[in-house]
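Shapes recur. One chain:

:::
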Amino acid sequence: MKVGIAIPTPQFVSAQFALGNLPLIISDAKKKGYKVSLLYKSGVRTDSNRNHMLKEYLETDVDYILHIDADQIYPADIIDKLVKANVDIIGSVYFKRSKPYDPVVYVKSGNEVNPYRPVDLKGYGPHHYEVDGIGFGGMLVKMDVYRKMGDDKWMVYGKNFHNPTKDTHKETHDLVFCQTAQKYGYKIYVHNGVQCYHIAEVPIGKEDYERCRSNNA
């Protein structure tokens, strides 16, 4: 099984991620028999960076792309756990860096202005569950998904994302990708057994979200 890791990189990359976490991910995957390759692309537009790496991987024979971000910490066995779920699109659980530290895991809300609401997976088992939206941080996608989506595979922000006068269609490029994939009949999953940390002044994780929820109860 061949997995291509794709990392859009800011100007400065966390040493905790690059020198500590990323080597562990690659080492664990290789020990378990995966063939792993790595691409990174720098620039101010994250969607454009992802598209450049996707284009390169489409010219190879990798089976999956693992999208990871350089401002997060992932379980060392993330590749093995996500691949073994055996679904087309699956993500990891991580949390926003600002209070109330909502999970970047969503279901549709039915509200036109705020079409998604975050999902609290507390109490759920360490398995994968169907949702409507996930972030690119720790998202594994089968290459066949991109090939079947044609030109719709390229990642873009919502058409009004950068327009301060509009209230709708302001989705981030990860949610736009999820929307488009669903139109092609693909289901979106998140793996509650793959818990990640968002690097802020300190790494932010499930404990911070739950503590914030408890304090506001």
About this structure: The longest strand covers residues 2-9. The CA atoms of residues 66 and 166 lie 33 Å apart. The chain is about 30% helix and 25% strand. The two ends are 46 Å apart (CA to CA).
